[in-house]
Amino acid sequence: PRPPLPSPGDTSVLAGLYGPAEVKGSKELPDRAALEVLLRPKVGLPGVIERSREQLLRRTCESVVLGVLHPRTAITLVLQVLSDAGSLLSCCLNAACMGLLDAGLPLSSLFCGVTCALDPSGAIVLDPTTRQEQEARAVLTFAIDSAERKVLTATTKGSCSVEEMQQCLAAAQRAADTVFQFYRDSVRRKYSKS
Amino acid sequence: MAAGRGVEVETCVGQVVLPGDVLLLPAHPDEDGERLRLGVSAAPRGRLLCGPGLRRCAAGLLVTKCGLLRHRQAGGGATAGGAYWVDSQQKRYVPVKGDHVIGIVTARAGDVFKLDVGGSEQASLSYLAFEGATKRNRPNVQVGDLIYGQFLVANKDMEPEMVCIDSSGRSSGMGIIGQDGFLFKVSLGLIRKLLAPKCEIIQELSELYPFELVLGMNGRIWVKAKTVQQTLIIVNILEACEYMTAEQRKQALAKLSGN
Questions:
Q1: CB burial class (10 A; 0-12, 13-18, 19+) of residue A21?
Q2: ipTM of the complex, rounded to two decimals
Q3: pTM (global) more than 0.90
Q4: A52 close contact with B: CB closer than 8 A
């Protein structure tokens, strides 16, 4: 079980990571760890949106976790949405990364999630609130990795031109620095106590 | 935090490193890609050991776990070499060859016991791997017993195997752990702290009450004192040690020995 992540505005997600643990027979992979993500919404049962987000998070995590070091094991990541005030997907990405970091799983790099909203006038808003997301023309979420600021995952809702997408990506890569510095400071604080 | 640039490894020793950080190793001063070395090289190069939390990559060492970077000089006065590793805190145990752990017997399959060691797979322990055990003289091990042993085989591809004897055939403290006592789990970092030579926590506790203690590298501790109450007090102190500073611990112990 891992601590919750303070996030843009009041969106918060609690991440719990279990593993490498025993895996049920059919899900076993012979050469690497089987990663599973479970996303639980604040109210109600998980639906189709949660399932698609789980797959997105799973693919992002799989690209950084060194699963080859733990074949035939299962790594389970459970995310519980505590409150949603916008930019939920990037908050889940950040919580997932902090969970992986805190649990001591071998990672090839870190990643962070950044959401950009394009409002009708064409201005870029980073980490939009729910209101800004609804009024925006397009909402783009990127998962940026820490080694070379490459894009691990990109998902968009709405329509935007290619130039606008490039601009949002550049803004997200700059914003990623702040998040990585936050990771570094939290880890420093944790290890300063011991 | 600029992307793609490595940091010299010596500057990071004792500091927090995150996964994805690339640590550059000091280049060998005699290295020159153009010229061939005809004579015997003057300084013998020590071997560099890449410990837990680090992997070799093209540029140097890639950090894979977050934690404090530690360094130990190589023995014998070699200037190069030595070992680097990342001191990380985690609760989940991954079996490592040579580690002494406490296992719980879960099943008996023919001549082999299956032990739960807290990893992803159960470890196997042959009944012949005890001191003085023969086919006629079998050890008295029941399901639910606690065993203190070490890993003979522990890698990612095979089922871990444990033994309760060392290479010369003596048990040296390993085997079935006796009746009574209390088993509980702590984080791996606390175990390493307790196993350090001249650990203050253990010395202070032994001044309080006499007790028996078995520490398993898988995060499990077994404690037995004269009465149940004393045992539970020691358990609570060991569990709380993880989050208490040295002063808080001394205060807590002073309060207890005053009672």
A1: middle
A2: 0.82
A3: no
A4: no
